[in-house]
Amino acid sequence: MAFSSRLLSKSKQIQFCGSQITFQQIHAIPARCFAKQADRPALKGDEMLKGIFIEVKNKFETAMGILRKEKITIDPEDPAAVAQYAKVMKTVREKADLFSESQRIQFTIQSRTQDIPDARSYLLTLKEIRIKRGLTDELGAEAMMFDALEKVEKELKKPLMRNDKKGMAVLMAEFDKINKKLGIRKEDLPKYEEQLELKIAKAQLQELKKDTLEAMETQKKREEFKDEEMVNPKSLDIRNFI
Q: What is the pLDDT of residues 26-45, one digit of tens each?
């Protein structure tokens, strides 16, 4: 019997990989549930927990239903496989009402910065969020934004507060100059978001490939598998493992 077929029936680790894809997408659900809580009737104790559990369960089942139908190829080096994976994950998010990575970042920024009074603390918080998210500032825009703030505050001769409409307008004008210099246009934001989602899709496929290889290595150490050849992860059909 082929190694891949035997793994299908005997490897819990490989089967877990399929579910892991879904968990990667729904790990932010609780935050979204609470974010929407203001629009719902007041709930207490067990009722609130039950509501959250049911919503998460429904989202999970919706996501798993899609993953059982859509083909995913575990090949992070193939642009077509990465694009297909990103497309499937987008379908999962849309059907299960989940955040995209860009939306998660936006939600984090809104929740972390809503009570920050001054522009410098705001930019420092953005920097902290970027670093924690593992995002790189390849263009050096961040340093340029701080330089622009330094220029504006020097002209004001005081810290720039976010409720200072005139001062913030001047800062925004400086930011527009930076965007123009870097070739960043508001109308291109959807393209930048798509590029971000493709990077994330590739990283998730790399992690899935790593987990799959580790699972097969573990199985191969067992006596019944010692003479079997390991298969290439990209030849596996994840739908068979969910």
A: 444 333 433 444 455 555 66
Q: What is the pLDDT at residue 149?
A: 96
CA–CA separation, 178 vs 145, rounded Å?
8
**Alpha carbon 189 to its chain's center:** 17
Q: Give the residue carrying structure tokens 């003479």.
A: 227
Q: Please check whether residue 64 is in contact with residue 242, taking contact to mean a CB–CB distance below 8 angstroms.
A: yes
Q: What is the DSSP letter of 36?
A: T
The SS3 call for residue 62 is: helix
- Tell me the Cα Rg of the chain: 23
In this structure, of 10-24, 60-74, 163-177, 196-210, the range with the lowest mean pLDDT score is 10-24
Rounded to the nearest 10 degrees, how much is the dihedral formed by the CA atoms of 127, 132, 138, 143?
Answer: 20
